[in-house]
Amino acid sequence: SYKGFIDYLIEEFIFLKTINHENILRDRSFNLAKTLDMKKTNYPLYYIVTEYIDGQQLHEVYTKLNWREKAKILLDIIMAIDYLHFRGLNYGGLNPTDIFIDKDNNIKLLSMVSILEKRYNMYFDSFTKDFILPELYINREYDNRNSDYYSLAMLTKFLFIKNSVGSDIKEAKI
Questions:
Q1: Which pick of 14, 42, 147, 158 has the fewest CB atoms within 10 Å?
Q2: For the segment 95-110, what is each residue's pLDDT rounded down to a tens digit?
Q3: DSSP string covering 86-149
């Protein structure tokens, strides 16, 4: 059930909305829909509005990037993660399907509400599981900075060492 997640958002969205970093998609609003298709809803129906980026996921373009472009992307990601850690948050699910790149190689990480929803539902597919700290599968409460450090290390390996991580990308439920 989403009740626990919705309750969390009701309590924490005002704080999550303050996350404002150039490399993280922003969560703009969270609200209750009162009508759907011009009809009053009979049950609580919530929606989230998130910033949009016109780009591709990192796993779709990383083979076309040179070493310097990959290094810049990695540094941008590290700066975004550092920003979150400074504010007491962990990303906890960093992987190439949640990193978007525009035509100028600017990156944006999936918004915090979106990544929290994935973590709440424990949604890790055959590709993204390689980037998740193994302890998180056993204990959801283990979420700490180590999960982000592990993901950063696996992402570095993915970007710079051919066929090292996520070799089953074609099977991934993306």
A1: 42
A2: 999 999 998 889 999 9
A3: HTT-------GGGEEE-TT--EEEPPHHHHHHHHHTT---TTGGGGS-THHHH-GGG-SHHHHH
